[in-house]
């Protein structure tokens, strides 16, 4: 039976790739995109729900889907403060996770980050770890957590200095093997491909964590 998917963060680096791939995927009959504004695309399967970060808590209870893809994310600089960053990367993914659990979703797929830990002394990594921890506590049928290293690709809003990291990783990626392989950069479109493939594997119930090598394998298997 064809499924319904929700994409949160549909205009971002990963979310936009997720949206395009899900619309082209015959396994999904409806794709609900959560966006702050109208999208420059139309498709018979696409339903756009215009929602701001502030209105999301009131909109969330109206949402239902089989597979929930959460690609919300920002930087402290873009957000303007640690509090605003936490709102985007913790509070709103948790609201979505709670609604997914309450509405009977089959699975929730979260874009997190390498090094995430609720006990980290680094604020960014700690927030990422806290949202992982609290989504796990919801006991969703399946929770997929993707922990990429540096994400590369064309962003709607460029990040200062990112070009230097991208250039550096092009040199060092081939040298990262074994336990260091998880630090390889990954294209946003490749992560989106890996996420959709993971969502359609006959995996067991529970929590599934994916790092560098596993992300590569998922992407290649699609």
Domain count: 1
Question: Helix count?
Answer: 8
Order of helices and strands: EHEEHEHHEHEEHEHEH
Question: What is the fold-level CATH name, i.e. the topology?
Answer: Rossmann fold
Pfam families: NAD_binding_10
Domain NAD(P)-binding: 9-119
InterPro entries: NAD(P)-bd_dom (IPR016040), NAD(P)-bd_dom_sf (IPR036291)
Protein name: NAD(P)-binding domain-containing protein
Would you write up a description of this structure?
The chain is an alpha/beta fold. The chain has a single domain (3-221), classed as Rossmann fold. Helix content is 39%, strand content 19%. The protein is built from eight helices and nine strands. The protein has helices at residues 13-23, 56-59, 76-79, 82-102, 123-136, 162-172, 188-199, 212-221, and strands spanning 3-8, 28-35, 46-50, 67-70, 107-111, 142-146, 151-152, 186-187, 206-210. It has a seven-stranded parallel sheet with strand order 3-2-1-4-5-6-9, with helices on both faces. Strands 7-8 form a two-stranded parallel sheet. α6 links the parallel β7 (151-152) and β8. α1 packs across α7 (188-199). The chain is globular and about 45 Å long. The mean pLDDT is 87.
